[in-house]
Amino acid sequence: MMLLAAGSSVNSAALIAGLTAIGTLLITLGTIALWRLTQRSQRQHEVEQLVNAQISGHFHQILDLSDRAQRTFARAETLQATVEADHDQIAKDRDEVRTMLEELTQLRDRWGRLVPTMEAIEESPELLRITASERLEEARGSGDPDVIGSGMRDATAFLRRLLQHPDAESRDLELGGDLAREFLLSLSLARELYQRAVDADPANFSALAELCALRARHPLEREEAVEELSQLIQDHPEVSTARINLFNHFIDADRWTDLAASARRLLEVDASDSSAWRNLGVALFRLGDVPESRAAYERAIELARASNSDDAFVNAVRGYVGLLFKTASQADLQHSMDLLNEAIQRMPLEATIHIARGDAQEKLGQMREARRSYTVGSQLGSPVEARAADQRLRGLEILSALNLAKEDEGNTV
């Protein structure tokens, strides 16, 4: 029994140990299973996080690709519009080039037709006269004697060709005569040109008046030419050159009575003729009738103002101040200053008026102002006028030196 009891105790202990071992094993297996389950849940969570991160990354890439695609599409649309505009511009440019080529072809055809015409124009009377005038202008604007001489020779040659041109018109011949008379001082060439102008058109009365004036310079033709001028004035009073030439002829010949008579005849026809009143003033002054001369000059100036004719006003003043200077009264000198200032306002580039104002200022004792007027006259005037102004300036310098010498002498005494 004791053995059975002892055996039972052993079995119970073994059973307990076995059960304990089994319990421990189960606990261990449970723990392992739980650990494995935990590990599996963590890995699944990590996987899910990784997958979510990848999905989020892909989503952002998709958004970026979408934005880039939109920008690319916009650029594509812009490029397409630019290409279409460029295509339109290219088409327009092609049309313009085609038009230009057509115009160039037309111009070449016209040039081919114009060359003979241009060659003819080079010998046209009008161009010959214009070229002569241009050569004279170049000569007058140069201070080089060689250039002046060359220009005058060229102008003479062109006027000779104009004279000999079979198709020269009366007006071009007359203007050529003016160039020869006024600038070349070739009265023989001028007379030939005026004669041809009258032959080409007998109704060119201004050319006829110039021709008569030149003929009046010749002793054997003088009376006949003066008679023709007088008749021309009577028949055609509108021809101002006839009046001017007749007046100038009487002045050059010192025929003051004839000048006065001619001016009065013109005034009987037209009492508003400022030139006739002025020349009447010239004649009467030379004949010693100062009051009537003064009245004639004043009337000429009044009419020039009324007609707003600057040339007529300046010409009248230019003659009138000579009379005013002769009287030498302070009132007349001041009156001359007023008239000369008005004349300069009307024609500021007229050198003779500046010189005349300098004369008036010198007579009034305004030496500094006179020097300025003479200087302006020298700068604006022709060579002859400039020499006259320079002579007056030298006179002022001499007078100034003499005055200084007198002052020094007085101070010494």
Report mean pLDDT, rounded to a whole number.
81
The tally of helices reads 16
Q: Which blocks of ≥5 consecutive residues have pLDDT under 50?
A: 1-8, 113-121
User: Main β-sheet: number of strands, strand sense, barrel status?
Assistant: none
Give the CA-CA distance, first to last residue.
192 Å
Structural class: mainly alpha
The oligomerization state is: single chain
What series of H and E elements makes up the topology? HHHHHHHHHHHHHHHH
Q: Report helical residue fraction.
A: over 70%
Question: How much of the polypeptide forms β-strand, as a percent range?
Answer: under 5%
Rg to the nearest angstrom?
A: 57 Å
Categorize the overall geometry. Answer: elongated
Strand elements, count: 0
